[in-house]
Amino acid sequence: MGRNNCRVVLTDRCNLNCSFCCMKEPDICNSFKWQTALWIAQQRYDEIGITGGEPLLELERLVQFICLIKYFNKKAKVYLYTNGILLTSETAAVLKVAGLDGINWSPKAKPTSEEKNLITFVHVCLMPIRLLIQDEMTDDDMLEFVMSNGMQIKQWTLGDCSDMELEDRFRIDWSNK
């Protein structure tokens, strides 16, 4: 039996405006209300990816949703898709306590030394990080950084959203809880 995955759009809001963003495609997700978040949490998904927009813009709701998922489905692996700009060690610790299993970090530029330190801290001390790297950002320095920290890397091409076709997708509509 294949994997049973779900991707949930927590918010459409984002702190960036990337021209290649897959979320700009119309009708990529089915809209739903807060009670549907409860329904999703009660399903037996193997993995649930929480994405956006930028989910860290809705930190309180993000934590609540992770807790809800883990309450009903302790075996589910819950991953956050983020551009990482708003991620701090404190935020990562809160997300870990809530039950987050890992972070898919998609930096929009090569990480600075400070960002590399944060990535390393979160990966080593809290949870796995998989860097989603654009083809044009991959170089020997980036590969060395990822491999020396035991992280996973997934290269992708701008505008490639093909992996999203294999998952159930939902969008949370917070306007009418």
Automatic annotation (TrEMBL):
- Note whether Magnesium occurs among the keywords: no
Q: Write down the Gene3D superfamilies for this protein, in alphabetical order.
A: Aldolase class I
What CDD domains does UniProt report for this protein, alphabetically? Radical_SAM
Q: Pfam families recorded for this chain?
A: Radical_SAM
Cofactor(s) the protein needs: [4Fe-4S] cluster
Q: What GO molecular functions are on record for this protein?
A: 4 iron, 4 sulfur cluster binding; catalytic activity; metal ion binding
| InterPro entries per record | Aldolase_TIM (IPR013785), MoaA_NifB_PqqE_Fe-S-bd_CS (IPR000385), rSAM (IPR007197), rSAM_sf (IPR058240)
Q: Give the signal sequence positions.
A: none
Enumerate the UniProt keywords alphabetically.
Answer: 4Fe-4S, Iron, Iron-sulfur, Metal-binding, S-adenosyl-L-methionine
Domain spans labelled Radical SAM core? 8-107
Q: What is this protein called?
A: Radical SAM core domain-containing protein
Please give the organism.
Answer: marine sediment metagenome
Q: What is the lineage of its organism?
A: unclassified sequences, metagenomes, ecological metagenomes
